Amino acid sequence: MVTVGELFTNVKALLKSAGIDTYRFDAQCIMEDCFGARLPVILTNSSAKTPDDVLENVRAMADKRVSGKPLQYILGQWEFYGYPFKMGEGVLIPRPDTETLVEKVIDYCKENNLESPKIADLCSGSGCIAVTLKKQLPKAQVFALELSDKAYAYLNKNAHLNNADIHTLKVDILSGGVADSFENLDVIVSNPPYLTQTEMDELQTEVKYEPEMALFGGNDGLDFYRQIPKLWKKALKTGGLMAFEIGCGQENDVAELLEKENYINIEYTKDTADIFRVVSAVKKEDL
Questions:
Q1: What pLDDT digit, counting tens, does each position of 18-76 carry?
Q2: Cα-flanking dihedrals φ and ψ of residue 189, to 5°?
């Protein structure tokens, strides 16, 4: 017989021995998912026998985590900005860093009294940015553009899950024809692939489970930042905002690429770890 308390202890020990730094948090999430209750509630009956089906599920999930599979994929759902998002292989896992990008767009819309802004989220992935913006700016017209079949499926699931009335499109955002089909956008927001080849070669095991097309931004990580400002300039209103999430240390390179296309009022925004995470700019008036 394995008691509830013993099971929690065993799972923590297993994950710790596998070198998982967040072993206690991960063990807690697995326990809560399998028992369907919060950990303090579960452990009030720590001496009780663990039901066989629950024991089997906990052990199976713990084994997957030991193999390196991301916790978010194992659980099948993750939270971003307080909203739930379905997760699985083939879609980029939302990170807290990306909330900085969302907040930048929300602040811009409020500061400019945009009650019903027209927003395009490029490389939308799970839809965490597009869905959150729609929830926070209910009158906004939000377009979420994604190329990957698997990610696009999750994008639609998450829009439905959160009752977010957004427009989803399965397209290549680097196609000039796609960009030309938009006009008068108030905001273009994007968390594009931005890892360099060196960073791809040095990925942690669990990150290797995530789709390469959502991670790899070319040899120097800047491929998307080179193309989006130019391709999508006509779609953006004069004075409209273009906001990017960036990788660590990319702020000056991305700013230069925006300046090259005559964007102005370039700003850098740090995330909660005090790292520059967002570079934004506005479209200059055509002369």
A1: 999 999 999 999 999 999 999 999 999 899 999 999 999 999 999 999 999 999 999 99
A2: -125, 145
Q: Are 91 and 154 in contact (CB under 8 A)?
A: yes
Angle at 224 between CA 223 and CA 230, to 5 degrees: 110
Q: Which two tokens stand for residue 28?
A: 């807690």
Question: Which positions ≥6 away from 194 have C-beta within 8 Å?
Answer: 217, 221, 222, 224, 225, 245, 246, 247, 250
H helices of 213-260, where? 223-231, 251-260
**H or E element that contains 235:** none
Nearest residue to 41 (alpha-carbon basis) of 51, 49, 31, 26: 31
Name residue 145's beta-bridge partners.
Answer: 122, 169
Other Cβ atoms less than 10 A from the Cβ of 257: the count is 22
Question: What are the structure tokens assigned to 217, written together?
Answer: 């931004």
Query: Per-residue pLDDT tens for 201-235?
Result: 999 888 999 999 999 999 999 999 999 999 999 99
Phi-psi domain of 280 (left: phi exceeds 0; alpha: psi -120 through 50; beta: other): beta
Q: Is 84 within 8 Å of 38 (Cβ atoms)?
A: no
Nearest to 127 by CA among 177, 86, 69, 70: 86
Strand partners, 192: none
Going through the chain in order, the beta strands assigned E by DSSP cover 77-80, 83-86, 118-122, 141-146, 167-170, 185-190, 236-245, 263-270, 276-283
